[in-house]
Amino acid sequence: MKTLQSNLSIWALATLLAGGSLVACAQATTGTTATTTTTSSSAKTQLLAPLQQTVTKIKKLVATGDPDFDYAFQAKMHTQGAQDFLKQEIQSGKDTALTQMAKTLLTAANSDITLLDETLRQLKPTRPMQAYTQQQSRNIEAMSLKLQQTGSSDKLTGNLDKNFSTLLLDQRQDAIDMATTYLQYGKNATLRTYAQQLIDKSKLEMEKIKAMTK
Predict the structure, then answer these.
(1) Report field, pTM of the whole predicted structure over 0.70
(2) In angstroms, rounded to a whole number, what is the distance separating the alpha carbons of residues 96 and 179?
(3) pLDDT in tens, 117-158
(4) What is the pLDDT of residues 126-136, one digit of tens each?
(5) Alpha carbon 71 to chain centroid, angstroms
(6) Residue 212 pLDDT exceeds 90
(7) Domains of the chain from N-terminus onward
(8) InterPro entries from the xrefs (predicted)?
(9) Distance CA 192, CA 172 (A)
(10) What is the DSSP code string of 145-178?
């Protein structure tokens, strides 16, 4: 009888230990999954956030209708968003070539902000053009929709560097679209030169990014 009780006690203890091991294993697995999900989410939102905030700010601008004045403000805000976006890659990126590119682009963005600020101080809205306002508004809405679709799709992963490349291509294309629209209506010599150079530089940068990601 004692032997039977002893055996039952051993089995009970073994069952408890096995149950505890299973719980511990489940907790460990859940913890790993949660960490992976959090890391993946962070790699997306860390880069998406500054771009989404930029579009929101640009959409809130009250358009005067003057292509020169409005584009200068829009370009400035778009460039400021790029600054915040690039800083995320510089701070958290692992790919040396991409982080170096981000640093180069950030230096250029800082110079662009200075140029746009100086130009804005000399501008006054004088010639409202509804056609420009409507076309540029469509560009901005397209930017917003593209970010929403990218954020909810599987284009972005848990790899921050890959996400940076994907989003940078879109961001550069957005800059090209805005500058191209401005050149159809804008008259300011400084801004026209800026917009054309922006288009040319952005195309080269996009080619470089595509080559790096192959």
Answers:
(1) yes
(2) 30
(3) 999 999 999 889 999 999 999 999 999 999 999 988 888 999
(4) 889 999 999 99
(5) 21
(6) no
(7) 46-213 (1.20.1260.10)
(8) Ferritin-like
(9) 17
(10) HHHHHHHHSSS--S-HHHHHHHHHHHHHHHHHHH
